[in-house]
Amino acid sequence: MSVIEEPARRLEVLAEADVVVAGGGPGGWTAAIAAARCGARTVLLERYGFLGGMATAGLVGPILGHRAHNSARPIVGGLVRELCERLHCLGAAPAWQDALGLWGIPFEPELMKVVLDEMVEGAGVEVLLHTLVANAVVRGGRIVALVTESKSGRLAVKGHMFVDATGDADVAFRAGVPTHKGRPADGRPMAMGTMFRVGGVPVLCEEASRVATERILAARDRGELRVYNAGVQTRSSTLRNDHITPNVTRFAGDPTDVRGLTRAELAEAARVRQRAAATVSPTARCCRRRWATCWPPAGASQPRMPRWQAPG
Ligand SMILES: Cc1cc2nc3c(=O)[nH]c(=O)nc-3n(C[C@H](O)[C@H](O)[C@H](O)COP(=O)(O)OP(=O)(O)OC[C@H]3O[C@@H](n4cnc5c(N)ncnc54)[C@H](O)[C@@H]3O)c2cc1C
Fold this sequence. Notes:
By secondary structure, the chain is α/β, with parallel strands linked by helices.
């Protein structure tokens, strides 16, 4: 790859805080609220125009891991429970006690955006949306500021503590922390996936569901349908009986490489419609189906991670 030199320049300071959180997903909004409720001046930087990360932008759900396996015993509470209860007040999630009876907490992503705004605002967090963290300034082995890119330009955000909640270890990577990608054997990261939502899909009885699953698997075996499981009828995060949010797509590539990510987005967008067509079952009437959302961005779990070293 050829290179050009970027001239050094002085950056204006957009904000200054005790705690600067990069990324407004499940890791970020929780860190920001916890810090602010402890009295720290907190800034939360998010590249999209709303909070929630994969839960809202990626339609990923239901929220998993809130209870012990095959038991109604909660293993988390705190902010997850508060989120669930606030969503429940809007009819956008089950009550916490009812959620403990479920393997995951279904929720409405659009209302989650609203609730998260209320929660961070109530905690006194300064939120900067549409703000991409593009670099980290390191002095004496410590991060002293993040460099952001937004419509306001290239600006710095100074802080005492920094939380990397980008999901991709962007801050650690930019700060020069050693990172690694993928599995040790060959470095290949977990495949990316795009969840999508379709409305107007009738609830299937057990027999119709079995027949639909068989058809999907047969189409996959014939090479006509690219799905990595047969759960095309899965409701996942949605609360609505006639909606589905299947988690059936996978695309191999590196989501921290802009060309790899672009290839995944283009390939998945083309195939999502094909997968939606596979939701037609022997009992479903095609004309009743409708898109409930556009397809959200592709995502991957932990594509790049810091290589932690024990303090020497
Ligand atoms: C296909 C798929 C299906 C999944 N299914 C489930 C499921 O059913 N249930 C479940 O509980 N979990 C599921 N997961 C896992 C879940 O999505 C993650 O555990 C969770 O999103 C991690 O939260 P996070 O805050 O670390 O990262 P993310 O949710 O990725 O949030 C990161 C945030 O940081 C922002 N960001 C990133 N880089 C920058 C930057 N440079 N500057 C500013 N902002 C930035 C992003 O826009 C985003 O808002 C699934 C994951 C995938 C990929």
